[in-house]
Amino acid sequence: MLYSIGAYLRVSIEDDNKKESESIVNQKKLINSFINSSNEFKNSSIYYYTDDGFSGSNFQRPAIKNLIEDIKIGKINCIIVKDLSRFGRNYIEVSDYLYKIFPFLNVRFIAINDNYDSKNNKDNLIDLDIAFKNILHSYYINDLSKKVKTSKISIAKQGHYISSYTPFGYKKNTQTRRLEIDEEQANIVKMIFELVFEGHKYTQVCKILNAKNIPTKSYFKIKNGERKDYSKCKNQNKIWKPQDISKIISDEVYIGNTLHFKRKRIKCGYVKTIKSNEDEIVKVENTHQAIVSKDLFYSVTPKKRKSKQFIIKNIFAYKLKCGCCGYSLRSREVNNKGSLCRKYFCTTKNEKENANCCRHSIFEDELKQLVFQSLKNQIVLLLDINVHKENNTNSKENISIYEKQIEKYNLDKVFGYEKYLEGQISREDYLIIKQTLENNINSCLNEIKNIKEKIVEINQTNKEKDIFKKYFNSEELTKEMVDNFIKCIYIYDDNNIKIEWCFKNSQ
Predict the structure, then answer these.
(1) Dist CA 437 CA 335 (whole Å)
(2) Do 188 and 205 meet the contact criterion of CB atoms below 8 Å apart?
(3) Kind of pairing between the strands at 282-284 and 361-363
(4) Which of 109, 199, 304, 471 could lock onto 118 through a cystine, CB 3.0 to 4.6 A?
């Protein structure tokens, strides 16, 4: 069998001084040596997947995701790692891949230092030694995670700043691990507090800052290398917005206090970030020099209050953007023909007088109707597409036909080589035959890849179809439907909208 090998390399700590860490280099040398020493892997294609600086506690790693995707489309049929801990340290997830997922996908898995080869474990019986190592790796990462968190809490309580990003107005001293004032940014922070103290509303503060072309937080992050310059993005936060002002005047960092662990990550099918409870936040006072006085801070900082009820009911929350400037729309209750209704509108013109924006707005009821009709049209269209794909997809049996052809071509290569050794054909004729057979093999591999891609696409569209059917007979738009199907809605003049869908094949 001709193998297409995915060599997976991982190390937990990035080496800032070299392009690749020594650990990565050593893993690559070991894997290459193993491949070169085996006749079984001659003429195999090798692809390298490297996660440098990523934990093995989960599979949310860029290279491992790319590897899994390439396996699904048939590009990789053999994985080789230095040892099991490089692949992952979570016992349950690693075991699922070794004994369920990879056997189902006909993928061979080799862990060199653990002397594990799935080819020698055809019955999928769990080797006790391997299972025990997986448990140890899982225990190790859980124990390490607790120790790291405990250590971070201890360091935070000592007044050190442990967050990856420095707050606006400050810079981080890498030696003392404490915050120091950035004079250029700090002057802007002082200006914001003073303007709010003088009675200016957030929108008015933005208008003043934007009129003076005061640089935004994003500008300084790009300047200091903390954020890439997303020049291709429509919205680059070129102007100050009310939410920027709100975050600054409510952050205790500006009176010398440090709050850590304000947000936490939880798993719910996927990893998401949520606000921490009050007792989970670590607050340390007087850890660094303040930019504003406590009297000024508490005189302008709004008291904490519960979120308004309409935010919970708003089915378009975080989905609406102006089609002209790209900023998020705001909303308020207005009187429309004698009845109260919600209206969404762009505020960029209020925050910057000469902004290139057309003040797009739309009533919620009208938007619901437009989005609901568009969604129903998409559902009907996509259900038809799915049926069409099911009726015209090549059978899985074709894969085995191409695999048998590949085996035949490989045998022909061996026979051709034997004829060359026996002097029955010349070296030139042998090379021509070999090249022709390799071209045929590559052609078969491409056909297999195409078929597997179609199978994966069918499986995905079948899942989508089940979701579509659930809402096919719905009579009105719901927040659940918006969250499941819509990424973003851009609002233009005359109630024209553009919808970015969450599913493939959208029209």
Answers:
(1) 76
(2) no
(3) unpaired
(4) 109
User: Which residue's structure tokens are 């009820």?
Assistant: 309
Residue 163 has pLDDT above 60, yes or no: yes
DSSP state, residue 328: B
By mean pLDDT, which of 14-18, 281-285, 459-463 is the weakest? 14-18
Which DSSP string corresponds to 241-265? -HHHHHHHHT-GGGGT-EEE--EEE
CATH 2.40.30.10 fits 170-305, yes or no: no
Instruction: Give the residue extent of every domain in the chain.
Output: 4-153, 170-305, 307-400+441-507
Structure tokens at 238: 């070129």
187: which residues sit within 8 A by CB, 6+ positions away?
Answer: none
- Which of 181-185, 278-282, 285-289, 450-454 bottoms out in mean pLDDT, i.e. has the lowest? 278-282
The model's pTM:
0.45
Q: Alpha-carbon dihedral of residues 23, 29, 32, 35, nearest 10 degrees? A: -90
Residues whose CB is less than 8 angstroms from the CB of residue 14 and which lie 6 or more positions away in sequence, other chains included: 21, 52, 53
CATH number, span 4-153: 3.40.50.1390
Beta bridge pairs of residue 181: 170
CA distances from 260 to 24, 87, 157, 185, 225 (A): 33, 32, 9, 22, 23
Structure confidence at residue 120 as a pLDDT band (50, 70, 90): confident
- Bridge-partner residues for 273, per DSSP? 265
Q: What's the CA dihedral at 56, 61, 66, 67 to 10 degrees? A: 0
- Helix or strand holding residue 81 (H, E): strand 78-81
CA distance 44 to 233: 41
Q: Where are the alpha helices (DSSP H) in 73-182?
A: 84-87, 91-96, 102-104, 128-157
